[in-house]
Each structure stands twice: as structure tokens, then as C-alpha cells.
Amino acid sequence: MAEIKPEKEFKPYISAGERVAEFTVKSILLGALFGVIFGAATVYLALKAGLTVSASIPVAVLAISIGRKFFKTTILENNIIQTTGSAGESIAAGVVFTLPGFLFLSAGSNGEGFFSYWPIFILAALGGILGTLMMVPLRRSLIVDEHGTLPYPEGTACASVLIAGEKGGDFAKTAYMGLGFAFLYAILQKIFHLIAETPAWVTSQTNRFFPSATVNGEITPEYMGVGYIIGPRIAGVLVAGGVLAWLGLIPLLASLVPQDTTALQLVKLGYLKDLATAGGSGDWNPVTHTFGDYATAIYRAYIRQIGAGAVAAGGFITLIKTIPTIISSFKSSLGSIKTTGEVQVTKRTEDDLSFKLVIFGSIALVVLMAVLPQIPGDSVVNKLLIGVLVVVFGFFFVTVSSRIVGIIGSSSNPISGMTIATLMGTCLVFISVGWTGKVFEPMALVVGGMICIAAANAGATSQDLKTGYIVGATPKYQQIALFIGAIVSAVIIGVTLSILDRPTAAMQAQGITHAIGTDAYPAPQGTLMATLIKGLLSFNLDWQFVLVGVFLAITMELCGVKSLSFAVGAYLPLSTTLPIFAGGAIKGLVDIRNKKKGIHEDDELGRGSLFSTGLVAGGALMGVIYAFFMAFESTAGPVGKLNIEHFLTNSLGEGGYQLLGFIFFVIMGLVLYRVAVTGKKTEI
After folding, report:
1. Which class for 200: exposed (0-12), middle (13-18), buried (19 or more C-beta within 10 A)?
2. Has residue 312 got a pLDDT over 80?
3. Could you tell me which of 529, 457, 502 has the C-alpha nearest to residue 124?
């Protein structure tokens, strides 16, 4: 069987001999615009929920509607739009999952000083460039030679969207319906406050059998959309972790642990100044020695550390399970470098950027990291070691990321596991050369952060190159577009993080200087990365709680459940995972109905998924816009005048107001279900 013939046998939609407009100014500008939009939305969503959804298909849908209709773009120009635009989402995910960790490093490490615009921009841009750079020599090996072996599901789906759009397929309408619905819902919720933000049911701390149990949900369009996209299985595992934490562990600890003990733990963790100071997480009252919200106090004091241990263990388990893939990927990448050097480019569809660019680009990256003052490190030697570690780990995990997403898709890519492994390896190197203590924590986070960004971008880059291979794109133009997309996206990602991190007036009154890390933007992965680094270099982890989480993850894995999803659910508030589960449950009902009727619809391109994509984009973008308004006192005032929550609570009572919000959320779910099961099927 001739296994390496796909390159000769496969015929792209646009043949190598055809000359079609491709790398044009309008395609780059449109792609950059979409990269900015989805980059900002991803920052918001990842900070809130610790989750992201792929932007590749939404950008492809926008390309065939806006680009083709208003700018008369060709299919190859639409491919460049999609390629440039999708970089924003992947880089934003890598940034948000790691770099907020600067805020949570040990006091005295100066980590907080690096969480500013220029360090974030530089690390995001360099990490994104690294992910694309390392994929240049791997394209032929993974995308071309293994075309029949590695399906790259999102890349193949995007190619189908672009080809269907060229033939007149109708994808955009449903996505725009979802976006418009989400915008209207979010305006009613965030501006007018007609819809309650987080309806809740909480038992009293004095309840004898079930104290401080909490059921609540942040009923937003983006969470419902995410739940529908990830499906009932993953959404169910996510909410299971939250159910255990908020309806199991918190009531148990509320029964056993005195409130003074919990307050002391919060002081140790920095969530409360001292026992004589009111406020902090859970609203501590120093006079009565009680919390106004004991469930939140326990969550901050104990559950987050248990969740961090579970996420760490889940990441390691995921990594261990992919070791065979890692080894084979590494061997293939070494072989592909030799092959790339020998290949004589003769056709447009085989024209990659030069391998020399990879070599000199890697050297330039190390040099830049050594000389830029925004990179932590006391000397050039410190920074050179960081740069070398970034390139070494980068090549390894870019290869791993590309092969994994080729099999299971970008959404299931275990980026967190790779980042944890990078942090472990980096900290062990630091320890071996005597670099222990607080001052080296930011340096370790830089290595982990850049590898996370590079691996995330490499996964998205692989999908884009697969799309290009199918439609007949010129590889070097795609690679250049990816570099442009990485830099443009890094600009807006830094701006968005800076805006979202600005505390509101209410936060400032409580002494909070950073909104990231609060209940508004928990940044779960960033907190985890900082916790791991501190534990490895400074030995200040509460291991008793972390180990509970470790064995929770092991237990779930032994039960055949994906431990990482469960662990993330245990770490996040139930208010996040419960509305996500609602979206997943709707997807499950749609699947059951379609199965009974014998209907088969593509999970990525079905009407429900497209409408949900619109819900995610619309809700997240409105969240960014609202956060922008509230970050500046001059605009917060006029927006606040539109708030009718006080009128509604006086008219309906607090319970009635929350019930009204729940009814709106149910209506949104019914609309999503009806869209998914009615109308013309989106087939390709």
C-alpha cells in the first residue's frame, strides 16, 4: 500500500497551475479585523470560564459572507482571511491561560510588575511567532504526507465551508441570528439589568443538615453557546466537578470547620488582610466572627486549592496518555527537517517559507529575549537560558500539539498538560542550577507562558494549513498571514487584558487593585500555573488540599471519566459550569431527536452549532464592550442610569427578579433548540 502518495493523488479545489487572487491587502485587513474581534472575545471568555471555542469556523463563515458579498473575494482570499483571523483566538487562549499568573506569584517576586501592556504584548507576539515558525518545517510531513492519516477536523470543516461558500452555500445567516440574539440579550442583562446576572439558591449556614450549599448560574448567552458546542458529555463532566464542590465539599467543610479557622486561612492566602479587618472573600465580620457568605469563603480558602491539585493531576494524566503520540511526533519532526531541506519546490501549492527562516528566526527570538527589558531576569545569562528553554520546549510541544489536533481537533488539545510539563521541566532546570526562591518565579512563568501560546497557535496553524492544502492555497502566503495575525492579535490582547484588569469603583473601595483574579474574572488556569511555580520553587503549597485534588482526578480517571474536564469543573464556580451544562443538555436533546428521525448533521456546521457560535461571539463581545465602559468612570455613570434592577426588585421582590432572569434564560434555550431542529439543514 503506497502510504505516502496522497500528495500526488490528492487534487485541491484550486489546482497548482491556476492563478487566483490570494494574498491581497483586503484579505489581510479583513483577517486582522476578525482576529482582533475574536481575540478580544476569547480573552473575556477565557478569563471568565477558563474555556475557549475555536474561531476558525466562525471566521470562515464571516469570510464567505462579508468578504465574498461586499469585497468580491476569491476562495483563496477567503482562506487568507480565515488564516489571519483565527490566530487571534489561539494566541489569546495561550496568553490568558498563563500570563495572569504574574498576579498570583509570591509577594516579593515582582511578578505583578510584569503584568502590564508591553510584557504581555511581547510575550504574546513572540509566542505566536514561535508556534508558526516551528510549523514551517513540519507542514509537508504532517499536512501533506499524512493527508489520509491525520484528518485535522476543524481544518477540513473550514475547507468545506469555504468551498460551499464558493458554490453558494448558506452558513452565515444562522450564525448572525445567534450573534444578534446574544447582543440583544446581553444589552438587556448588562445595561438595563432586566435579566438577573446570577440567580442563586443558598442554604443558611445555620441549616443543620445542609449548610451553605449553593446552586447558582451566570445565565449568559456565551455560556449556553459554549455548552452546546462542547456537547452533553464534556459539559456533564464539567458540571459534575462543580456539583461535588458546591453541594458536597463546601457543605461538609461548613459543618466541620470553624469560621475563625477559615478566616485565618484566607489571611494566609492573601484574600483577607487580617482578622480585625472586615470584608474580603465571603464578607468577613470581625465583630461577630462570621462570614456573610461562608460558601464563598470556603471556596477561596480550600476548594480552589483542591481544584488546582485536581487540574494539575488531570493535566499530567492527559499528558501521560499521549506519550506514544509525543514520541512518534518527535521522531517524525526530526525526519521532516531532513526532508524539507531536500525538497525542490516546483509548484505553487508546495511553496513554503525557507527553512533558513526557522533557524535564524529561532536565534533572533533567543537574542530578543536576552536583550529586551520587559523579559524577567537579572542578567543576560538568565535571559539566554530562558530563550534556549523556550526554543527547545517549543519545538517539542509544537510538534506534539500539531499531531494531536490532527487526530482529535483543537478543542480537545491538552495544552494545559503540555504547559504543566513545561513548567515542571523548567523548574527542575532552575533548581539544578541553584535558581530557587521567589525571584525566579516570573522567569519560569515566561517559559511556560510562551510554550502555551506557541502550542495553542501551532494547533490552530495546523488546522489552517490543512484548510489551505484542501482548497489549494500557497503555503508561504498562509505562513506570512499567520505571522501578521499573531502580531496584530497580540496588540489587541494586551489592550483587552489591561481594560478588563481595571477594578471597578466597588472593587477599589474593597482595596482590590486587579479585577483579574476576582469573582468577575477568576482566571483559573493562570492561578493554577502560579500555584505550581510557587510550590516547586518556594515550597509554600498547602499540600494536604492539593493532594485531595490529585486523588480526586485519579479517582475520576479510574472511573473512565476525563479527569481534566472534571477538575476544571471542581475549580470553577458552579455559576460558570451550570449554564454551560444547560447548553450541553440542549445539544443532547437535539442529538436524541435527530437520531430518532434518522437525521445526520455535522456537529461543527449544523444550525444549532452555528447559532451557538453566534451566541458565544455576541455575548463575549458585549461583555468586552461593557467592561470597557465600566473601566472608565466617565462612561460608567451614563451606563448606570439605565439600570432598572432596583425598580424590578422593589416590584417583584428579590426572588421574583431572579425568577424573571431564569425565565429569560429558558426562553433563550428554547430558541436555540428550535433553531437546531427546524428549518433548512446546513449540509455540505
Report:
1. middle
2. no
3. 457
